[in-house]
Amino acid sequence: MPVTDISHDLDSLTLTITARFAAPVERIWQIYADPRQLERVWGPKEYPATVVDHSLTPGGLVTYYMTGPEGDRHHGYWKVLAVDEPHSFTYEDGFAHEDFTPNTDLPISTCVATLTADGDGTLARYVTTYADREGLQTVLEMGVEEGTRSAMSQIDELIA
Question: Do 13 and 129 touch, CB atoms closer than 8 A?
Fold first, then answer.
Protein backbone atom coordinates (compact mmCIF):
# COMPACT_ATOMS: atom_id res chain seq x y z
CA MET A 1 0.00 0.00 0.00
CA PRO A 2 1.70 3.20 -1.12
CA VAL A 3 -0.05 5.62 1.26
CA THR A 4 2.04 5.77 4.41
CA ASP A 5 0.26 8.60 6.20
CA ILE A 6 -2.86 10.75 5.98
CA SER A 7 -3.33 13.57 8.44
CA HIS A 8 -5.61 16.54 8.66
CA ASP A 9 -5.33 19.69 10.73
CA LEU A 10 -8.51 21.69 11.26
CA ASP A 11 -6.48 24.65 12.58
CA SER A 12 -4.21 24.97 9.54
CA LEU A 13 -7.05 23.79 7.24
CA THR A 14 -4.81 21.15 5.63
CA LEU A 15 -5.04 17.55 4.54
CA THR A 16 -1.62 15.95 4.04
CA ILE A 17 -1.10 12.65 2.24
CA THR A 18 2.29 10.93 2.14
CA ALA A 19 3.00 7.96 -0.12
CA ARG A 20 5.99 5.94 -1.31
CA PHE A 21 6.22 4.40 -4.75
CA ALA A 22 8.70 1.83 -6.06
CA ALA A 23 9.55 3.84 -9.18
CA PRO A 24 11.72 6.86 -9.96
CA VAL A 25 10.31 10.39 -9.74
CA GLU A 26 10.19 10.67 -13.55
CA ARG A 27 7.97 7.59 -13.79
CA ILE A 28 5.53 8.86 -11.17
CA TRP A 29 5.49 12.26 -12.90
CA GLN A 30 4.45 10.58 -16.15
CA ILE A 31 1.30 9.28 -14.46
CA TYR A 32 0.14 12.85 -13.83
CA ALA A 33 1.42 14.16 -17.18
CA ASP A 34 -0.39 11.54 -19.29
CA PRO A 35 -4.20 11.75 -19.16
CA ARG A 36 -4.66 8.06 -20.01
CA GLN A 37 -2.44 7.04 -17.09
CA LEU A 38 -3.97 9.63 -14.77
CA GLU A 39 -7.46 8.30 -15.33
CA ARG A 40 -6.28 4.84 -14.24
CA VAL A 41 -5.36 6.18 -10.77
CA TRP A 42 -7.49 9.28 -10.16
CA GLY A 43 -10.41 8.19 -8.07
CA PRO A 44 -11.17 5.03 -6.13
CA LYS A 45 -11.43 1.75 -8.01
CA GLU A 46 -15.22 1.88 -7.64
CA TYR A 47 -15.29 5.34 -9.26
CA PRO A 48 -12.98 5.23 -12.30
CA ALA A 49 -12.05 8.55 -13.84
CA THR A 50 -12.34 9.78 -17.40
CA VAL A 51 -10.06 12.73 -18.18
CA VAL A 52 -11.65 15.11 -20.69
CA ASP A 53 -9.14 17.99 -20.87
CA HIS A 54 -5.53 17.77 -19.75
CA SER A 55 -2.94 20.53 -19.69
CA LEU A 56 -0.43 20.10 -16.88
CA THR A 57 1.14 23.52 -17.50
CA PRO A 58 0.82 26.78 -15.54
CA GLY A 59 -2.59 28.22 -16.39
CA GLY A 60 -3.67 24.85 -17.80
CA LEU A 61 -6.81 22.96 -16.96
CA VAL A 62 -7.50 19.32 -16.21
CA THR A 63 -11.16 18.28 -16.27
CA TYR A 64 -12.52 14.85 -15.47
CA TYR A 65 -15.48 12.92 -14.20
CA MET A 66 -15.65 9.81 -12.07
CA THR A 67 -18.34 7.24 -12.79
CA GLY A 68 -19.91 5.45 -9.85
CA PRO A 69 -21.15 1.85 -9.70
CA GLU A 70 -24.70 2.97 -10.56
CA GLY A 71 -23.57 5.07 -13.53
CA ASP A 72 -23.65 8.33 -11.57
CA ARG A 73 -21.04 10.91 -12.63
CA HIS A 74 -19.07 13.25 -10.39
CA HIS A 75 -17.26 16.05 -12.22
CA GLY A 76 -14.12 17.87 -11.14
CA TYR A 77 -11.31 20.08 -12.31
CA TRP A 78 -7.76 21.16 -11.61
CA LYS A 79 -6.70 24.69 -12.47
CA VAL A 80 -2.92 24.32 -12.73
CA LEU A 81 -1.12 27.14 -10.91
CA ALA A 82 2.57 26.11 -11.01
CA VAL A 83 4.70 23.28 -12.42
CA ASP A 84 8.29 22.26 -11.69
CA GLU A 85 8.60 19.13 -13.82
CA PRO A 86 9.18 16.42 -12.60
CA HIS A 87 9.31 17.55 -8.97
CA SER A 88 6.09 19.37 -8.16
CA PHE A 89 2.88 20.92 -9.32
CA THR A 90 0.31 23.12 -7.63
CA TYR A 91 -3.33 23.27 -8.60
CA GLU A 92 -6.72 24.50 -7.53
CA ASP A 93 -8.87 21.42 -7.04
CA GLY A 94 -12.62 21.67 -7.23
CA PHE A 95 -15.88 19.95 -7.88
CA ALA A 96 -17.64 20.87 -11.11
CA HIS A 97 -20.99 20.83 -12.83
CA GLU A 98 -21.50 18.68 -15.95
CA ASP A 99 -20.16 21.51 -18.15
CA PHE A 100 -17.03 21.66 -15.92
CA THR A 101 -17.83 25.07 -14.49
CA PRO A 102 -16.82 25.15 -10.80
CA ASN A 103 -19.47 23.97 -8.37
CA THR A 104 -18.98 26.58 -5.65
CA ASP A 105 -21.49 24.82 -3.39
CA LEU A 106 -18.70 22.32 -2.63
CA PRO A 107 -15.18 22.99 -1.31
CA ILE A 108 -12.39 24.33 -3.49
CA SER A 109 -8.85 23.70 -2.31
CA THR A 110 -5.26 24.28 -3.34
CA CYS A 111 -2.98 21.25 -3.56
CA VAL A 112 0.80 21.18 -3.71
CA ALA A 113 2.05 17.80 -4.99
CA THR A 114 5.76 17.15 -4.42
CA LEU A 115 7.74 14.18 -5.74
CA THR A 116 11.17 13.52 -4.21
CA ALA A 117 13.70 10.79 -4.96
CA ASP A 118 13.83 8.27 -2.11
CA GLY A 119 16.44 5.59 -2.77
CA ASP A 120 15.23 3.69 -5.85
CA GLY A 121 11.72 5.05 -5.42
CA THR A 122 9.71 8.21 -4.88
CA LEU A 123 8.37 9.91 -1.80
CA ALA A 124 5.19 11.78 -2.75
CA ARG A 125 3.62 14.42 -0.54
CA TYR A 126 0.30 16.08 -1.28
CA VAL A 127 -0.65 19.04 0.93
CA THR A 128 -4.15 20.33 0.30
CA THR A 129 -5.33 23.56 1.90
CA TYR A 130 -8.98 24.54 2.27
CA ALA A 131 -10.49 28.00 2.66
CA ASP A 132 -12.26 27.09 5.89
CA ARG A 133 -12.91 24.32 8.41
CA GLU A 134 -16.26 23.52 6.83
CA GLY A 135 -14.65 22.74 3.48
CA LEU A 136 -12.10 20.39 5.02
CA GLN A 137 -14.75 18.77 7.20
CA THR A 138 -17.01 18.27 4.16
CA VAL A 139 -14.40 16.31 2.19
CA LEU A 140 -13.48 14.27 5.27
CA GLU A 141 -17.14 13.31 5.67
CA MET A 142 -17.31 12.49 1.93
CA GLY A 143 -14.59 9.87 2.51
CA VAL A 144 -11.54 11.56 1.00
CA GLU A 145 -9.15 9.52 3.15
CA GLU A 146 -10.58 6.14 2.13
CA GLY A 147 -10.93 7.24 -1.49
CA THR A 148 -7.33 8.43 -1.61
CA ARG A 149 -6.02 5.13 -0.25
CA SER A 150 -8.00 3.22 -2.87
CA ALA A 151 -6.98 5.53 -5.72
CA MET A 152 -3.28 5.58 -4.89
CA SER A 153 -3.10 1.81 -4.50
CA GLN A 154 -3.72 1.70 -8.25
CA ILE A 155 -0.39 3.47 -8.87
CA ASP A 156 1.46 0.38 -7.66
CA GLU A 157 -0.48 -1.71 -10.17
CA LEU A 158 0.28 0.76 -12.97
CA ILE A 159 4.04 0.89 -12.35
CA ALA A 160 4.42 -2.87 -11.82
Answer: yes
Q: What is the pTM of this model?
A: 0.94
- One-character DSSP codes across 40-74: TTSS-TTS-EEEEEE--STT-EEEEEEE-TTS-EE
Domains in the chain (CATH in brackets) are 3-142+149-159 (3.30.530.20)
Quick check: 120 and 22 in contact, CB under 8 A? yes
3-state secondary structure of 37: helix
**pLDDT tens, position by position, 58-69:** 999 999 999 999
Using alpha carbons, list the distances in angstroms from residue 132 to 73, 110, 115, 117. 26, 12, 26, 33
